[in-house]
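Archive entry: two folds, one per protein. Generate the first.
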Amino acid sequence: MESSVSVTGQAAVLDRSNVDTDAILPKQFMKSVKRTGFGQFAFDEWRYLDAGILGMDCSKRQLNPDFELNQRKYQNASILFTRENFGCGSSREHAPWALSELGFRAIIAISFADIFERNCIKNGIIPITLSASEVDRLMFLVRTSERFIVVVDLAEGLICPQKGEAISFDMNESARKKLLRGGDEIEYTLGFYDEIKEFEERRRQRLPWLSGQ
């Protein structure tokens, strides 16, 4: 994954609580582990008026005009504001894959489901929690603006809306470092290749029978 020092982009509002992973990406589309091809099916049952089938051409499907994220001003949004317990339900990593491919690089919510939050971090999406009052205020600003730009500065721990004062946020330091550094757990571990190799060599010399010697 790419590092995420900061994100600047159009904000969008999904004013719903307890959005589960089956709503984010319905189970019928989870037939691949390639991490791509899922964005067109994100929020499928809310986003379209017809039932989605894997492999269909979504560009020809009729959008649901009542679904918030289908508003013209939210097209190409990269920052999502939503409510509490976002990403609850089954622990499918396909959900953040779909959101990432849809274009979202930061999600700001009152709370997240634990596993979903970890999966976001693993896939380069910045999950940020704010108080209900702060989310209310920012949602109002987004809704009442034709195009509302927000800067999420992960390095400084700040959300900088185009109107109003910057808002500070807290994040687990380990998670913040992973997002700033980029790369997954395997790439991070390989960064210690020389130290691991040296440790294994010492182990073989000290305990040769463990290696069948």
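Generate the second and append.
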Amino acid sequence: MTAVFALATSLLWGLADFGGGMLTRRSPALTVVVVSQTIAAAVLGVVVVASSAWTQADARLWYAVAAGVVGPVAMLCFYRALSLGPMGVVSPLGSVGVAVPVGIGLLLGERPGPVQAFGILLAVAGVVLAGGPQLRGAPVQRQTIMLTLVAAFGFGAVMVLIAESSSTLTGLFLALFVQRLTNVVVGGAALAVSVRRGAAALPAEGVRVLWSALPALAFVGLADVAANGSYALAARSGPVTVAAVLASLYPVITALAARGVLKERLLGVQTTGAAIALFGTLLLASG
């Protein structure tokens, strides 16, 4: 079941990233993050009440709080790096965050077999190539590299933290709710500061656009929640090293979604990377 849950995570994260990318073309990225996470928190709040998940509260919830703090910071660093560019470097480099949960798994004594180890190498290499790395062009700013690495580490840390935030399914609902509430608080505070500085004020037309995009915002927020939940289940049901790598295939999903919906042509390196990643996935699943 590890492979099933982890691949579901990749699918959900990939679609959420694609939807979020589409929405940020019309609205400020921070606004999209805060609104989508607020919707997700509201839905999770209903689930928590209906399932009496609050009875599962314990010290593990601090992991969910930590994930809720780290997540928005990582996302803001990632968006800032994307704005500095080039995207062909930032996007694939951001996927190296998988090293965090994989490293934790190895420190805890997990030892994938030879087939799985080779599958991990292929999957990670394929994900980087699927991002369409820019191999030629102007030098990349050091600030861009640093911001991207901070974001990647943050993404990997969230994977580790959310996997440790509960020991039961209902406890997982509560943990995801707490994580989302923390996301909203941290992101909302950043948004308030931006608005005060005049950097993220939303004009009336922008408000109308945002209102019309509520279904899409709900999808992005809920897909992200579901991805976190399925990853926690994947990490709990099998080796973290396998779960983390399979869950990190989401850039491939995002690239394929852009190809199917926006008719974007994939670069040769992206097509090759997707094929390598999928082959690595088969090795992981079969091992």
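Annotation attached to the second fold: The two ends are 13 Å apart (CA to CA). The chain has one domain: 2-286.
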